[in-house]
Specification:
With 225 residues, this protein is an alpha/beta fold. It contains seven helices and seven strands, in the order ααααβαβαββαβββ.
């Protein structure tokens, strides 16, 4: 009986998660469905990850990497959520966007098209970077760029918008990230998820809850002093 109850609970969670993400998808389509590049991008991502999912990639490559596996837990920012986040920070054509932990590249591709600005994804998992670069060349997303590296070792000084999906990051990584943001120029904007960054060189402006693929999460908006 215990195992059956556990099965029912897991099945229910899976069902409600499916409905939840389906709702986010429909909202996304109502916003981007008329864009040809959106459907081409969705198609390429589906083809590239249909037989080799992000979960499988991480499980295969995590043992070879220099960071804790928990920091590779995969979750994606829905494009409709990214649009709402960008709306709050008053972006302009001179901004340069960096996503620390680019994953499948969806956020970087979207920002490069939606704002028509240079957008960079820093991703440590080689398979993700290989795939996103292939997609970039095929679809001619020339304002998007992807770098295979530990983001703690990459120069981020030219970023004016720094996006960090930091929900699964360790305290040690968050401390290193806080120190790394000293590289940014004055007035650069930093968005983190779940946890704010605390440093004398940073001011936390506000926080707000948004919907992500894994559920509702607090986003924190900082500015470089």
């Amino acid at each position: 009986m215990g195992k059956f109850k556990e099965y029912l609970i897991l099945t229910s969670i899976g069902f409600f998660n499916f409905i939840y993400n389906l709702g986010l998808f429909f909202e996304e389509v109502s916003f981007l469905g008329f864009k040809k590049w959106y459907w081409k991008l969705k198609k390429e991502i589906f083809i590239n990850y249909f037989l080799d999912t992000p979960y499988q990639i991480i499980k295969r490559e995590a043992p070879k990497l220099e960071i804790p596996e928990q920091e590779l837990i995969y979750g994606e920012t829905p494009l409709i959520t990214m649009k709402k986040i960008l709306k709050l920070i008053n972006c302009n054509s001179n901004d340069i966007f960096y996503d620390l932990g680019g994953g499948r590249g969806l956020t970087v591709f979207f920002v490069s098209k939606f704002l028509n600005i240079e957008s960079f994804g820093i991703e440590i998992v080689p398979a993700f970077v290989k795939k996103v670069n292939q997609i970039k060349e095929k679809l001619k997303f020339y304002k998007a760029a992807f770098i295979q590296a530990n983001f703690l070792n990459v120069d981020i000084s030219k970023a004016t918008i720094l996006y960090i999906a930091s929900t699964t990051f360790t305290e040690e990584t968050l401390k290193k990230l806080t120190h790394k943001t000293k590289e940014l120029k004055k007035d650069a904007k930093i968005i983190t998820l779940s946890t704010p960054l605390k440093g004398e060189h940073l001011t936390l402006l506000y926080s707000k809850k948004f919907y992500f693929s894994w559920g509702e999460t607090q986003a924190f908006f900082h500015i470089r002093n």
